[in-house]
Design goal:
With 110 residues, the protein is an alpha+beta fold. Helices cover 28% and strands 15% of the residues. The protein has a three-stranded antiparallel beta sheet with strand order 1-2-3, covered by helices on one side.
């Protein structure tokens, strides 16, 4: 039987919480875009109508990070390394572990 590793278990739980929050936030962003015709410049503009509050990153204790990229956006958690890797994941660099939702809107599909 493998040894229980509380750090691994905590990181796994927080990754799942972050992924869940990011998914719900991405849905709110899509509903807002459908109704408003564009993504917001700030997550705070979703509060009240689409979300109760801006979700908190379980790793940093601060709001999830959001920025527009072209006509799309990226929203992310800093992940278990507790460092803002700029929305980069392990696929982008070996020391990066942000948990990311990135939506790319091709030109002409705004």
């Amino acid at each position: 039987m493998a040894d229980f590793n509380p750090t691994y278990a905590r990181d796994l739980l927080e990754k799942n919480v972050a992924s869940h929050q990011l998914t719900l936030l991405a849905l709110a962003l899509e509903i807002g875009r459908a109704e408003q015709g564009r993504y917001p410049t700030r997550l705070e503009s979703l509060v009240g109508r689409y979300v109760e509050a801006v979700p908190v990153d379980p790793f940093s204790g601060r709001a999830l990070i959001y920025r527009r990229e072209g006509e799309g956006y990226v929203v992310y958690s800093i992940g278990p390394n507790l460092r803002d890797d700029g929305g980069r994941t392990s696929d982008d660099g070996e020391d990066c572990d942000d948990i990311v939702v990135r939506v790319v809107v091709p030109p002409g599909n705004e």
